Amino acid sequence: MPEGLVIKAYGGFCFVWMEGKVEKCTLRGKLRTRGRVLAGDEVVVRSLSGGRGVVEEVKPRRSEMVRPPVANADQALVVVSFREPSPALNLLDRILVHCEAAGIRIVICVNKLDLAAPGAENEAWIETYRDAGYPTLVTSAVTGEGVAALREALARRITVVAGPSGSGKSSLINAVQPGLNLRTGEISPKLQRGRHVTRHVELLALEGGGWVADAPGFSVLRLEGIDRAELAGLFPEFGRHTDGCRFADCVHYREPDCAVRRAVAGGAVARFRYAHYLGFLREILAREGKNKL
Ligand SMILES: Nc1nc2c(ncn2[C@@H]2O[C@H](COP(=O)(O)OP(=O)(O)OP(=O)(O)O)[C@@H](O)[C@H]2O)c(=O)[nH]1
Ligand SMILES: [Zn+2]
């Protein structure tokens, strides 16, 4: 039976890409439970007449994100901008932690280089992310700078696009491939307060191979499912130091002989990243209902 890629799934149907054609499929009984078939799933299809089919089987997933619901995402592209809006690094770190927990690769993109001061592409905060190990591109959807590198980063992969409203996600995807319209920009700023995130995810095809997930739902990230012991490991540059802490269960706050705090004091870990870590830790402890910091 033929295999294909689910580009959209909702309401008991899914749309499966098979050798360039899209077939609208129903789901075999046991697959009808919500979440059993997601955009990004590789499936086995029994074709019926008239371009219809039935999804018989879902192949094992390489990765799975709950919010937004996407299977087999290879990476997240997290877009922030130099200005308008200026980068909200707390939100950036929250998205990074969320993607790290989901186990997917991350590419950071700092957009609107045309609005930034000369030399901005090497500002200290950007170097912090590069040093942590994140590939970090700088782009302008207006001048086209960095767009070729972004196109290369997206090729042959399934990419979930995230980032604050107005950072230029839709504009960048459109610069990579004119006509490919991410629908995140369709709601006017005035309506944003009442904005719902119930729309389904859709994978958009890139010409050179690869897919971009038009994925609403990054706006409310509550660090669900992450526990205190796991959090520091989701900041890759902290992980290089945790072995040096005296206590194996150190949360790197007030414990004596903490190697992470030493790294902060010595400048090896950026203060702003550590401050965000503490904020997230507080949030997790409050949720766990245990002792506060
Ligand atoms: N100067 C400049 N403006 C840009 C750039 N990229 C996007 N913009 C502008 O920034 C505004 C927001 O861009 P969008 O592409 O809609 O941003 P978005 O991230 O998709 O926003 P949401 O849909 O709200 O999530 C638009 O007015 C764009 O024209 C850029 O590189 N430079
Ligand atoms: Zn520690």
TrEMBL record:
Domain EngC GTPase: 71-219
Pfam families found in the cross-reference section: RsgA_GTPase (PF03193), RsgA_N (PF16745)
Cofactor(s) of this protein: Zn(2+)
Sequence ranges assigned to domain CP-type G in this UniProt record: 62-221
GO BP terms: ribosomal small subunit biogenesis
Cofactor note: Binds 1 zinc ion per subunit.
Keywords: Cytoplasm, GTP-binding, Hydrolase, Metal-binding, Nucleotide-binding, Ribosome biogenesis, RNA-binding, rRNA-binding, Zinc
Domain of life assignment: Bacteria
HAMAP family referenced in this protein's UniProt entry, alphabetically: GTPase_RsgA
Protein name from the UniProt record: Small ribosomal subunit biogenesis GTPase RsgA
Gene name, Swiss-Prot/TrEMBL: rsgA
